[in-house]
Amino acid sequence: MLKNYFTIALRNMVRNKLFTAINILGLSVSIACCLLLFLYVSEQLGYDNHHGENVYRVTAYITQKGGSEIHAAHCSVPVAPAIQAQIPEVEEAARVLNTELFGKDIIDLGEDSYYIKGGAAADASIFDILKYDIIAGNPNTPLPHPNAVVLEKEWAEKLFASDNAVGKSVKISTGMGVTDYEITAVYDKDSYNTHLTPSFIISLINTGWHGFIENLSSQWVTNNLAATYVRLQNGTSAETVVDKIDQIFRKNGAEDMKAYGMDKKMALQPIADIHTNDSYFESSGHGVSLTFIHVLIAIGVLILTLACVNYINLSTAKASNRALEVGVRKVMGISSKGLIGQFLGESFIVVLISLIISFCLASLTLPIFNQLVDQPIALDTKNTIPIIQYMIIFLFVTSFAAGIYPAVYLSSFKPTVVLKGKNKDKGSAAVLRKVLVIGQFVISIVLISAILVISDQVDFIKNKDLGFQPDSKIVIPLANDLNKQAQVLKDRFKTLAEVSEVGGGNNIPGEFIFSDIFLYKSGETVDDAVRIYQNWVDEDYIKALDMNLIAGRNFKAGMTDDSLSFRIIINHEAAAQFGFTTDDAIGQTLHNEWNGTEYAYRIVGVIDDINQTTLHKNVEPTMLVCGNGQVPQLVVKANTENYATTKANLQSIWKEIIPNTPFEAFLLNDHIIKQYHSDFKTFNLIKYFAIISIFISCMGLYALSVFVAERRFKEIGVRKVLGANIKNILVMVSKDLSLLIIIAFVLSVPISFYVMNIWLSNFAYKVDQRPVTYVIAGLATILIAWITIGYQSIKAARTNPVEVLKDE
Q1: In sequence order, which ranges of 261-383 are alpha helices (DSSP H)?
Q2: Nearest alpha-carbon partner for 596 in 256, 219, 249, 217
């Protein structure tokens, strides 16, 4: 019986070569897309699962004056040791600090030195909480003493080639000074997918870092610098532990919170949630938005749906050709269930063939796909099990989804009717085909609209006035101990003909300013304070970035402040929140009180608002504080038409002054654009998959136009004999399908507007959705559809009526 079904299926596939080819090609392309998308999604959702259960990161919800809330991924330094000592359910607690808090790190080996990014200073117990693949050294005690360092494999190989790095010594310069470290272990970051992959890990009990930590040991509310991880006892309720952590925190930090006019509630975040949760600021690692994951899943499902729609439409359209077969089989005793099994078997065979082709397509297009995502995937033995799982799921789900309606529809034919030739095409099937065609093109138009709206937003991002000029700006980072060389470097850089200004700052545009304080006006109290971000800069920072000083004056060279009084320049937003007009702000004094000491900040200037970070966020109250030249980053305003030459000239001066320190430089404009990497990635993915969806939809539309034309050949012949011209025939053949596309356009506009409005809501500064965008999307889709059905329509219109009517 199965052999008979298989033979019949192959005969039908050969008999309908065009429809079979369209079904197999559409399903192959869609399954290949789904395989790549779902493998990528699986990897992203699989981050940090290897650490086991009961592992959490301690986070905080900070409610500020005015009700604004921040989800902080880090907490204050004393939290970890306190909760481990006082909460029995906490087996281990450990802190991890970014070693680049005060500038770039340098690693030295003999005469060779390199900037090294992503270093961490941590409690040794971090290795008892998080699982790392220690490939050299003792995995039980990777940090056995204060001057130990665990090095990532790539750096171990870079420094020591093929030799074993364990036992060797390196010199590392961090913000806490220069220290000789013994390499006690090497780990491989590629063994597991995890959010925290430092280039090196040193101990927090090292001399320099230990002193820094001790100074912060009583600060429970401020200096939220520590990523804090805990492992709970088995069977422990996270909610119970959170309550205990919060009680400890409030016992020690209530007074400081009151002084700052804020509230802070502790929380526990499951470690597997970190990689896909972007709601926390200053989160460790570079994760992926869960919204982006949902978009990828939706795109995969939609593309597979389009291919299944093609199969359903073409199967029901050709049903009349198989009506006689169904009637004969029913007369021979085959039940409806038997026929359903046969037709589902046929869809199974089509999908199975498509599955084989899809894997080949996925392999061929994998390099292109990996260029569109951050973390590349591989179709190798590592992913054998998920590939097989997805292939099996695609085979059975797609076979059933595509084949069940055609199977039920065909098996429902009554032999007494079809054997008389009266059941050619049920009205319900014709209606369903129309609905499905409309649905296909609604999806296509929505995706085209998305491309146009996102393209407008991308152009807006690239062209918006940010309050400073990012073009022709070169950023040169300084290592931790090079701040004292800043002025010397500035003076020498200015001697270059292509350089016009050199300024320095703690945080350049495109970086989040972590330092913030609460200031209040004279005559007010801390209850009236405004939270304001502070960026330490030199007197040339504003000029180097071409910021617009709208009131007052710039900082003056050589201007000094005592430890209790500072001169500041605020932005327009800060002036507004303090209730000052731009001009009235000049000369005003703001105050801050901490530990019984009052600090004064006198406003000497007001700058126009700048977008310090991305356009996703509103401009925050910000002040520039003169740092007297002690800055970790230099901004060089220069002619960058010949960037390579300018960079080489700057490097030459650098080597004269600081010969033993590596030189690094980058264009500020490139740095700004990198902030929108995720947005551009989304745009490119939607663009490519929109093209694929239109391609699949048009294949189905072409096949339907062939079917329509074939069924109306005799009618066309009669009309031509009666005098109809080619134009009349073209309208007759194409108007039904064209009407469906127009209906799809009307339905897609509100859907597109709603979906894109949700996406644009992620931006504080965004374009307005224009009606012309949807008109262009609709017209483009209609044009593509007309081109698709045009060939078959013209062929039908030019048919010789003699050839069609000669048998009548």
Answers
A1: 290-317, 319-331, 336-372
A2: 256
d(CA 635, CA 501): 8
**How much of the chain is in helix, strand and coil states, percent to nearest 5?**
50, 20, 30
Tokens 């996102």 locate to 454
Condensed to tens digits (0 to 9), the pLDDT of residues 257-296 reads 877 777 888 899 999 999 888 777 654 446 778 888 888 8
Asked whether 512 and 500 are in contact (CB, 8 A), the reply is no
Q: Which of 371, 351, 348 is nearest to 359 (CA)?
A: 351
Nearest 5°: phi and psi at 202?
Answer: -115, 165
Give the whole-angstrom CA distance, residue 266 versus residue 62: 9
> What are φ and ψ of residue 276, in 5° steps?
-110, 15
Q: Residue 701: phi, psi to the nearest 5? A: -65, -40
Sequence ranges of the domains in the chain:
1-47+288-425, 50-273, 444-464+675-808, 480-660
Residue pair 413/327 in contact (Cβ under 8 Å)? The answer is yes
This model's pTM is above 0.85? no
At residue 586, φ and ψ (nearest 5 deg) are -65, 130
Report whether 47 contacts 274 (CB < 8 A): yes
- pLDDT of 283 reads 47
Token pair of 606 as six digits: 């007001």
Q: Does 85 score more than 70 pLDDT?
A: yes
Instruction: pLDDT band for 326, please (50, 70, 90 cuts).
Output: low
Could you tell me which residues are beta bridge partners of residue 183? 149
Q: Which are the contacts of 17, defined by CB distance < 8 A and separation ≥ 6?
A: none
Which tens digit of pLDDT belongs to each residue from 592-648?
877 678 889 999 999 999 999 888 888 989 999 987 656 788 999 999 999 999 999
